[in-house]
Write a structure and sequence with these properties.
Structural class: alpha+beta
Strand content: 15-25%
Largest sheet: 4 strands, antiparallel
Number of strands: 10
Distance between the termini: 42 Å
Order of helices and strands: HEHHHEEEHEHEEEHHEEH
Shape: globular
Radius of gyration: 18 Å
Number of helices: 9
Oligomer: single chain
Helix content: 25-40%
Length: 240
């Protein structure tokens, strides 16, 4: 039984709050994040040690999943018990899609971890190549429907599949007043350019200020969680 790429997209998007796209692995590996990581001597991502970890030789296509992260559901991004709730949901969906592809079409799929250092992909590059969004002034992926309120994962598919097209004619940042940059609590956009080291200062602060608002543990106490800053994300008018 043959399967077409639109069928895979349709199945992926049958899950609530999911948008999907397809890109070739070769195109993703040519993306700007890989280029920057190779050229930046200070990069913490060592591509030579992690790129392609446990990737089957036959896996040449990437299925990218984008999960809508509503502002009214902040828990999706809370770091609790070693992961975020958004990642847990995306892992569950990825595994379900893997089983569906194997059972119905005898296609092998390989859900990837989130982190590049553990064998994952640069997800924003993959999402841009697959047409899920564009990179905004905030350095976040911006989807036409949901803005930057989206969480990403990827699945390698064995075989060559027709890629979905990258977005054209979508450039909301060109006429924007820069709400994301103005909202940043640590001024990570000095000179209108995103500074990852400055942004990391806020991330470190968030991690040092865990709050006991998570699930109740076996001792009857609330788990501590990290509430990561979303100021630039929630200030974006696209998809608000």
């Amino acid at each position: 039984m043959k399967i077409q790429a639109p069928e895979i997209i349709s199945q992926a998007e049958s899950y609530d709050g999911i948008r999907a796209g397809i890109a070739t692995l070769a195109d993703v590996l040519k993306g700007p994040s890989y280029r920057d990581a190779r050229e930046d001597a200070g990069s913490t991502t060592r591509l030579g040690e992690c790129q392609g970890v446990d990737w089957p030789e036959e896996a040449r296509t990437v299925l990218v999943l984008g999960l809508h992260h509503l502002e009214t559901n902040p828990r999706l991004d809370w770091w609790e018990r070693g992961d975020t709730w958004g990642n847990r949901r995306l892992r569950k969906i990825s595994e379900s899609l893997k089983q569906w592809l194997r059972k119905k079409y005898n296609i092998d799929a390989h859900p990837l971890p989130y982190h590049v250092e553990k064998g994952g992909l640069f997800l924003k590059d993959a999402a841009v190549k697959s047409g899920i969004g564009i990179i905004g002034r905030s350095n976040l992926l911006v989807n036409p429907e949901w803005g930057p309120r989206i969480r990403l994962r990827s699945i390698l598919l064995e075989g060559n599949w027709q890629a979905t097209r990258a977005l054209e004619g979508f450039s909301p940042c060109e006429t924007c007043e820069g709400y994301c940059q103005k909202a940043c609590p640590v001024k990570a956009f000095r000179g209108s350019r995103y500074s990852r080291p400055v942004c990391l200062q806020q991330i470190k602060t968030d991690e040092e200020n865990k709050v006991a608002v998570g699930e109740i543990d076996e001792n009857g106490k609330r788990n501590f969680v990290v509430k990561y800053c979303r100021a630039c994300e929630v200030s974006c008018p696209v998809g608000a």
